[in-house]
Automatic annotation (TrEMBL):
Domain of life of the native organism: Bacteria
Region (Disordered): 235-277
Protein name, as recorded: N-acetyltransferase domain-containing protein
Basic residues bias spans: 268-277
GO molecular function, one term: acyltransferase activity, transferring groups other than amino-acyl groups
InterPro entries hit by this protein: Acyl_CoA_acyltransferase, GNAT_dom, ICL/PEPM, Pyrv/PenolPyrv_kinase-like_dom, Pyrv_kinase-like_dom_sf
Domain N-acetyltransferase as annotated: residue spans: 407-538
Family annotation (Gene3D superfamilies): 3.40.630.30, Phosphoenolpyruvate-binding domains
């Protein structure tokens, strides 16, 4: 008896049914025919999602529509041809022509897709949603649109929820079927988004802080996907995969591995986001490790370097502010007042039980907001009532830079330091430092700390932007690269980077990038080498 191949219309209806069912749809993303077949072979797999980041990387390109659209669509076509399941494609921002890209994706075999807003003005993003919906209708396929908003990835944490609600409701009204909100992981925000969009309309990105799929299902989430994290291990690296498989428990999607961390008396949760998706009896090479980044080794040298540089930077800031600096093997913490709060810098991917217990104690005694950086993305801090978002760590090799097109100076006076301080507070909307108190964020002692430099950019004689650099252990790092709101889209960010790189062109330089900043850094020679998880309290 033969089984007929389902038509595009049948696949599209099946994908819609999967979103209408009460069970959450769990999607492990594929990037080529082999990974698609491996995912499809897992019992309980009902659909395939593609990942633009992974497809681009497989062809030697960075993410962010750097890959030619023809190559991306050809990869989608190979994935769709390899399986009989519905395929939903990551179409980024539409590659300059949303309607044409959606039509081409449908002809390639996709019956659903993501279109991201990149935080463009809402009216522009709504027009893109309408164009995608109309393209599906024109092709005669009930294309399922998962409209993505990047408010949690690029905007200030305090405005992310409101911005996501505003944008998501507008996209649904324009015809989108779901709203994809990557970076949202706090159950309280998830409940509010479900309440705003309605049950079965919220889509989330699997990340270390995200609750398990069963919990998300109970909250009313429609689907969860894992973006660039899944990756089939290279057949030439069985040793590394064997180590990974031994370290991670294998279990079906939707189940957490048994907790391995300490308890504080009220919580007993795994302090690791490492989740493995594997079909029972499948060779280790078919395990999908959701903690894997786009890099050549599990323990990235860049992650370790970024950890050390962040520790050096925040040690300098802590000393300049007169705050308490706590240094342990696995972390460094700077305990400030009710405005500065507690800053945690994870220094190793394997925090010990005593260190985890101490973090719980420090968080419990913090007098202000809590922020943490984990450049290894290996420690789950959600039980400290924090939510996490992932950001790329970027590395620039030593090399000359062009001359800045505006005045960029190293800060040497207290007057210039105050100007830089106010520029950074405005650029990053740091409401915790409002009302403004001179010297609270950048004390006068900061510019006298070893290895620390503050830079100030001026345009037409007015303060336009600022940043801070640190040199530690033969590496440079950038922090708080900000443009004053009145000077955005005028080349200030590029100028402040060029001006601050001049003194460290002989060193490799790291930074952690926002989604909006990443294209600028890539144009300056930075490349993504690891992923950091940044945690914030409410």
């Amino acid at each position: 008896m033969t089984t007929s191949t389902p038509t595009l219309q049948e696949k599209a209806r099946r994908l819609r049914t999967l979103h209408d069912e009460s069970r959450i749809l769990v999607l492990v993303n594929a990037w080529d025919a082999a990974s698609a077949r491996a995912v499809a072979a897992v019992p309980g797999c009902h659909a395939i999602a593609t990942a633009s980041h992974s497809i681009a990387a497989a062809h030697g390109y960075e993410d962010g529509e750097q890959i030619p659209v023809e190559l991306a669509l050809a990869a989608i076509a190979r994935i769709a041809a390899a399986v009989d399941l519905p395929v939903t494609a990551d179409l980024e921002g539409g590659y300059g022509d949303v309607a044409a890209t959606v039509r081409a994706a449908i002809r390639a075999g996709a019956v659903g897709g993501n279109i991201e807003d990149a935080m463009r003005p809402v009216d522009q993003a709504v027009r893109a949603v309408r164009a995608a919906v109309a393209a599906g209708r024109d092709e005669g396929v009930p294309f399922l649109l998962n409209a993505r908003t990047d408010a949690y990835l690029t905007g200030p944490p305090e405005t992310a929820l409101a911005a996501s609600v505003e944008r998501g409701t507008a996209y649904l009204a324009a015809g989108a079927d779901c709203v994809f909100v990557p970076g949202c992981s706090d159950p309280r925000d998830i409940r509010k988004l479900v309440a705003a969009f309605g049950p079965g309309r919220l889509s989330l990105l699997g990340m270390p802080a995200l609750p398990a799929p069963a919990e998300l299902q109970a909250l009313g989430v429609a689907r969860v996907s894992y973006g660039p994290y899944p990756q089939a291990v290279d057949a030439g690296c069985p040793h590394q995969q064997s180590r990974d498989a031994a370290r991670c428990s294998a279990r079906p999607a939707g189940q957490r591995r048994p907790p391995t961390s300490v308890t504080d008396g009220t919580h007993h949760r795994a302090m690791s986001p490492h989740r493995s998706y594997r079909r029972e009896g499948t060779p280790a090479a078919m395990t999908f490790d959701l903690n894997t980044r786009d890099r050549s080794a599990t323990a990235s040298d860049t992650s370790l370097r970024q950890a050390r540089n962040s520790a050096a930077f925040w040690t300098a800031v802590g000393h300049a502010r007169g705050h308490t600096v706590i240094r342990r093997r696995g972390f460094l913490a700077v305990a400030g007042d009710e405005r500065a709060g507690l800053r945690i810098l994870v220094q190793e991917p394997d925090l010990g039980r005593e260190e985890l217990a101490e973090l719980i104690d420090l968080a419990g005694r913090a007098s202000g907001p809590i922020d943490a950086e984990d450049p290894f993305s290996a420690t789950d801090l959600s039980n400290l009532d924090m939510h996490g978002r992932q950001m790329p760590i970027m590395l620039r090799a030593p090399g000359a830079v062009a001359e800045a097109t505006m005045q960029v100076i190293p800060v040497r006076t207290e007057e210039d330091l105050r100007a830089a301080e106010q520029a950074v507070i405005a650029a990053f909307t740091l409401s915790r430092f409002e009302p403004y108190r001179a010297g609270e964020m950048f004390p006068a002692a900061l510019i006298h700390q070893p290895g620390v430099d503050v830079f100030l950019a001026r345009l037409d004689g007015e303060v336009a932007g600022a940043c801070v650099t640190t040199v530690e252990g033969g590496y440079g790092s950038h922090y708080w690269v900000g443009t004053a709101p009145a000077y955005r889209s005028r080349g200030v960010g590029r100028a402040i980077m060029l001006g601050s790189l001049v003194s460290i062109t002989g060193l490799p330089v790291t930074l952690t990038a926002s989604r909006l900043g990443r294209p600028l850094y890539e144009s300056l020679g930075f490349r993504v080498t690891a992923t950091s998880t940044w945690w914030s309290s409410r």
